[in-house]
């Protein structure tokens, strides 16, 4: 009689798909912040822009102001920037900043 081998257990994701953003805030000299977040707010040229999971893809120019990241497990992170741009694709958010203010 043939026996079936159990499938190796797949590690559970830290957060279910569609409930968190994978965020990177990057400056020319390195990564300022990276991790999972519930929300990101950036100072776009057309006003404050909030990004939640499942947001439509976009690219936007950023002006001087504060990037606010609401991580899934810790307190809000605020980073003052001089400008840059943001790219949102699926639940990946990349904030490229010119410099920290």
From TrEMBL:
Give any Gene Ontology cellular component: plasma membrane
Superkingdom of the source species: Bacteria
Question: ATP synthase F1 complex delta/epsilon subunit N-terminal domain spans which residues?
Answer: 22-99
Q: What is its main location?
A: membrane
Q: Which family does the record claim for this protein? A: Belongs to the ATPase epsilon chain family.
What are the GO MF terms of this UniProt record?
A: ATP binding; hydrolase activity; proton-transporting ATP synthase activity, rotational mechanism
Q: What does UniProt list as this organism's lineage?
A: Bacteria, Bacillati, Actinomycetota, Actinomycetes, Micrococcales
Q: How does it sit in the membrane?
A: Peripheral membrane protein
Q: Which SUPFAM superfamilies match?
A: Epsilon subunit of F1F0-ATP synthase N-terminal domain (SSF51344)
The UniProt keyword set, sorted, is: ATP synthesis, Cell membrane, CF(1), Hydrogen ion transport, Hydrolase, Ion transport, Membrane, Transport
Say yes or no: keyword Transport present: yes
**Pfam families tied to this protein:** ATP-synt_DE_N
- The protein, known as: ATP synthase epsilon chain
Q: Which organism is it from?
A: Cellulomonas triticagri
Return the InterPro entries for the record: ATP_synth_F1_dsu/esu, ATP_synth_F1_dsu/esu_N, ATPsynth_dsu/esu_N
User: Residues annotated as region Disordered?
Assistant: 1-20
